[in-house]
Amino acid sequence: MRNLLSDSAAKFDPARAGEYQEQSRIALAGYDACHELAAAILAAALGTGSRAQVLIVGAGGGAPEISNAHRLEPNWRFTAVDPSAAMLELTRQHLNQAGLDDCTELHLGLVEDLPEQSAFDAATLIGVLHHVPGDEAKVALLASIAKRLKPGAPLILAGNRLVYREHPLLLAAWGNRWRMTGATPAEVEVKLGKILQGADPPAAESTVFNLLADAGFERPLSFFSSLFWGAWIAYRAG
């Protein structure tokens, strides 16, 4: 699995990292709302005023997971992991500007590089799973997170699902998001071409639920949807 995840991380070079925050908000209608809801759901699951150690997987690109959660629960502490140095540097800069350095530990690498013990009260995996090729590697990543969570701990999972080519209307609407920002038809074609070649999303929400179950999670519940994107909370099986 390490090689597959390293290959996925290689896509996020300094050039792509530099445009990530702007492009992600175009590609995902409701980007900020999804992250805000993720923090709200997680805080509801753990309880207001709780103290928690939270694992943020795929934390590069600014880690709004951390800033949003901290607004609600200032007593939480975060361990942020990402295999892309360029993306993790964006997060380092963002946390420094927001004054959140002291509540976050950054780790360049993979989840499997962390100690394999049930130490975390919660975890997030946002915008990552559809970049991992194949169901076997997806389950392995989810299972590596489960091994580091306490029994019953919640996981926030968000990312694309559905096979892009099987939903041409949604794909065309996705392209129109870029047109709204001034992209030409030729530029839209290039962007959609990269999407079609560069990701392997689960085929359906039922597939997401099966992946979670195979990795040791239960009780998945959807709380956000936007075109191909979905977000869920699930819990490590006790």
TrEMBL record:
It holds the Pfam family Methyltransf_12. CDD domains: AdoMet_MTases. InterPro entries: Methyltransf_12, SAM-dependent_MTases_sf. Residues 55-154 form the Methyltransferase type domain. One of its GO terms (molecular function) is methyltransferase activity. SUPFAM superfamilies: S-adenosyl-L-methionine-dependent methyltransferases. This is Methyltransferase type 12 domain-containing protein. It comes from Agaricicola taiwanensis.
